[in-house]
Amino acid sequence: MKSRSIVISIAGLAAITLVAGAAPSGAQSPGFDAQGCGWYIVLGCSKSRVDAKRQLIDLGGPMVGGGAGSRVINTSDFDGFRGGFYCVADGPYVSRDDAGSVAWIEAVPDAYVKRGC
């Protein structure tokens, strides 16, 4: 339970930083590339939408994140993602480097960057 409090605290700090108008060092504007695809920071996935929403709330709620904002996505709606999961993701970002520059790894050690359309 102690580690869960740390994750919530770090996510809360990220939310405060965004509300104050500060962006993580090197972070770029979120968005899609010319083909309509973008880069996402995947913070966790589940077969259950309810479980994914619970994880999102534990991380600080919708739109917390590195500028693009985190939310639950249905991977069946995105080419490049394995269908059948609900993932907490921050994005889209224009490039892998932009997504990789966001400091989610401190809050979620298993976070990774993935491209989806």
Structure in words:
- With 117 residues, the chain is α+β, with helices and mostly antiparallel strands.
- The protein has helices at 2-19, 49-58, 96-100; strands at residues 38-46, 70-74, 86-93, 112-116.
- It has one domain.
- The protein has three helices and four strands.
- This is Secreted protein.
- Residues 1-22 form the signal peptide.
What's this, in brief?
This is Secreted protein. It comes from Hoeflea alexandrii. 28% of the residues lie in helices and 23% in strands.
Number of domains: 1
Number of H/I helices: 3
Gross geometry: globular
- Rg from alpha-carbon coordinates: 13 Å
Low-confidence region ranges: 1-29
Percentage beta strand: 15-25%
Beta strands, count: 4
Q: Kindly report the average pLDDT value.
A: 77
Protein name: Secreted protein
Signal peptide: 1-22
Keywords: Signal
Topology:
Blueprint: H1 2-19, E1 38-46, H2 49-58, E2 70-74, E3 86-93, H3 96-100, E4 112-116
Antiparallel strand pairs: 1-3, 1-4, 2-3
Tags for this entry?
117 residues; 3 helices; alpha+beta; disordered N terminus
